[in-house]
Amino acid sequence: MTAAALFQSILASLPEIVVVTGACVLLILGQLVAKGQEPFLVFASVAVVLIAALGTIMLSGEVRPAYAGMFVTDRFSVFFKFVFYLATVLTLLLSQKYADIEGIGHSEYYVLLLFALSGMMIMASATDLLSIYVGLELTVLCTYVLTGFLRQKRRSNEAALKYVILGSVSTGIFLYGVSLVYGLTGTTQLDGMAAAVAGDPLDPGLLLAVVFIVAGLVFKVGAVPFHMWLPDAYEGAPTTITAFMSVGPKAAGFAVILRVFLNPLVAASDVWIIVAVIAVATMALGSFVALVQDNFKRLLAYSSIAHAGFALFGVVAGGADGIASVMLYLLIYSFMNLGIFGTVIMMRNGDFSGEVIEDYAGLAKSHPGLALLMLLYLFSLAGIPPTAGFFAKFYVLVALVERGFVMLAVIAVLLSVVAAYFYIRIAMVIYMREPNRAFDPALTPLVRATLAFTAAGTIGIGLFPAWFLRFAQHAVFGG
């Protein structure tokens, strides 16, 4: 690699370098921070993310390939990086009080979040199966540890162990697919894979390889049949980490899936049929199993599975419009899901956990403002207009109908009606029941700011959905 090429590569990956360097510096500084000075770690971590975001904006003007075609900075990756920045900053802001209550506010907690962010950023920019793998492993290794961060709680240890075992299996499946691709095409680059099969009848071995790669990736987004780890991991992990995992790594998984599905090799292989089956099964399981949940975090885990299924319908639709609809869906999902998790985190105070749905009985009478916020997030998750969640689902359905998948669109609507029931059930508990006990929510200024920001995003995208859709389409066409 020449000096000029090396400089271009470093420039293209500058945001990733900033995050990794910032995490390493914080790891050292964290050992010097006196007890009671933990807020410094929160603001330092947020500063690192904001500097990386500034670098991303500066690099967003043109396509910058790097590291011999294994990495690229383009509008597609920039869009996803801002979803990751959003998820990480809001998680950091929600963490300050919660980490103090749970006794996990160590520097390692914030450092692991930053390293997970850098892994997701690499996944969004990766154009080679090996660089995808590096980003994937960096993300999941950090989330494994963060899931088990409540070391004194058996539930947290169990969740981390299940996540590690099933995550290792899915990674092995993904790597087997990569080795098959390399053996059959002589390359691991996504563009090279397409060129290797251009004009020839598709090798069944390559179809098998694509199936293995897709199977490894759908684990990361929590799709059926690789969803088993998700409810236990979400329930056992610290609630702030559950919020982060439900948005960040899920969006990173979709970034890779979309990058792979932009590829002619996949388009030629009719693998969309497999994805359509996975999407229907995922949404059906998530919607129906959520109906019988009493634990709020577990209900949100199955809700997350159902939403992953709906987003996969956009992948099935394919084309620029289908991909843009998935990107917009993930952006909207980030706002409303971090918002609803923010309300759960806020309820954790003293001996009050806020994890059982019954804990929210009569919230409208004791805290009407918070009840109204929860109602906004619940309506958005259910896809009720005029919230942003309605338009997230609407544009995916439009993409399906335009591509001729009318039956899939009908199935998606029917399953959405089922999913709406369990969100409205929570709203009924909040508004129609008498309070069980008095409690004092942990409403710090940072939590207030986070809830205000997520509410503004949920309402704002609902009011101006076309502008945000154009932003997502621009990211696809300009990518």
Structure at a glance:
With 479 residues, the protein is mostly helical. It has 21 helices and 2 strands.
Write structural notes for this entry:
With 479 residues, this protein is mainly α. It has a domain at 271-479. Helix content is 77%, strand content 1%. The chain contains 21 helices and two strands. It has helices at residues 3-12, 14-29, 38-59, 75-102, 107-125, 129-147, 154-185, 190-197, 204-221, 229-236, 239-261, 264-268, 272-290, 296-317, 319-347, 363-366, 368-382, 388-402, 406-432, 445-463, 465-477, and strands at 64-66, 71-73. It has a two-stranded antiparallel ribbon with strand order 1-2. It starts with a helix and ends with a helix.
